[in-house]
Amino acid sequence: MSSGDIKRTPFVPTLLASPKVECTLGADGATILTSNIELGEYPVHQGEILQEWARRAPDNVLLAERRADDTWRKLTYAEAADLSARVGQALLDRGHGAGRPIAMLCDATMPMSPAMT
Question: Vertex 115, ends 113 and 63: CA angle to 5°?
C-alpha cells in the first residue's frame, strides 16, 4: 500500500476554551494555572448526558457488542436510559443515595454499562 492509497480523514475544527490562564507559583514550588474564563453550564452527572441523548435520538445505537455467533447485541440511547433509571431506582429503594454511595467493580461490558452512568 502506498501513501496515496490511504484516505485522509478530514480535519474537523474543535471548539476549545481560549488559553487564557493566570499562573501562580506556590510556596512549595508548584505551578498553579487558573482559567480566567468563567465555566459555563455543564451536566452534574453522566446520567444527565444519557437522558439528553435519549430525548434527542432515542433509537440511535449507543453501544454495540459482537456476540460469539457473530451477531450484534445493540443498546439504544432510550434503552440505556431506561436501564440506568431502573438501576438507580433499585439502589434508592435499598437506601443508597448521596449519603450512602456505592462502588462498582466490574468489566466494561454492555450488561454493566447502563449501571455506570
Answer: 25
